[in-house]
Amino acid sequence: MVDLRSRSALSRRLSIILGVLLVGTLVASAQQFDTGTIVGSAADLTGALIGNATITVTNIGTGIKKSLESNAAGDFTVIFPAAQEGEPWGSADEHPEKLRGDFVISGGEAISTMMQMDWTRCRFLPDARVRESVKTLGQLQEIFANEEARREMDPNTVVYSVQAWCPVPEGTEGGLFWGSTIVEPGQVESEYFMTHGHFHLKRDRTEYYGTIEGEGALILMDEDRNTRMEPMSAGTLHFIPPHTAHRVANVGKTPLRFVACWPSDAGYDYEYIRKFGFSACLMNTNRGAVLVRAEK
């Protein structure tokens, strides 16, 4: 655990990380060409080159388009081969009307694009790319120690909510996901409201949690079922080691807000927790929040 000392410090550092990882939309340009080859580079609005970006070359006069990707360095070449039947993109000698004219070179978005967060609320600003889920007491069967007490509570009570930004497909090696979680204050009997908890499917994958606001506990359990906890408060940054199950409990009276970053190929093993649980439960006792050996 690392204490960043203030919520504003945490916000600044994470914003810088996001700025390094994110790229914008390519710059469009129009030129006059009289040969069969167009060579160029894809760049964002800052001038940084973008690899593996989609490039579309359009003949304004005919509306004919040709698409390709820039290479890893951001460079691209559009080559017009000798004309074939039905192929309008011929050589300059055979189809001069297709190659002499106004061409627009445009780019789609690169794999990653910029996202915005409201750091005071620990929430993404509205965006269709954000995945959201809400977990209620009715959806968390067999998670809390006293299942009978849970069933007697309002099943529509929200325990926690999650937002996730997944800019690459799940399972992509080398990619990263980003998320935010809010755990509401509350208890099932004397056990604090908490997230479901999970191992990663790829057990050697790690994760970071950064606390924005509130008081909580990061509960960690290794594969030998040894369980421990780390206190969470505004400004604390937590590294979750490999081969470690993890969940978060809210031990305060206000919502606990934190962000997370994890590998896009990590996966989630919730089934282990459903079957076996953690070896200890975080209870509100006269000594405060204490891990108590679980019966499950």
Low-confidence stretches: 2-35, 81-101, 108-112
Q: Tell me the number of strands.
A: 22
Strand content: 35-45%
Q: Given the structure, what is the number of helices?
A: 4
Strand order of the largest sheet: 1-18-15-20-12-11-10
Describe the global form.
elongated
- Computed structural class: mainly beta
Distance between the termini: 29 Å
| CATH superfamily membership of the largest domain | Jelly Rolls
Query: Could you tell me the mean pLDDT?
Result: 79
Element-level helix/strand string = EHEEEEEHEEEEHEEEEEEEEEEHEE
Binned, the helix content reads: 10-25%
Describe the structure.
The protein has 296 residues and is mainly β. It folds into 2 domains: 2-16 and 113-293, Jelly Rolls (Sandwich), CATH 2.60.120.10; 29-107, no CATH class. Helix content is 10%, strand content 41%. It is built from 4 helices and 22 strands. The protein has helices at residues 7-21, 96-99, 147-152, 271-276, and strands at residues 2-3, 29-33, 37-41, 54-59, 65-69, 75-79, 101-107, 117-118, 123-124, 130-136, 158-165, 176-183, 187-188, 191-192, 207-213, 215-222, 227-233, 236-240, 244-250, 256-263, 280-285, 288-293. The protein has a 7-stranded antiparallel sheet, with helices on one face. The model is unreliable at 2-35, 81-101 and 108-112 (pLDDT under 50).
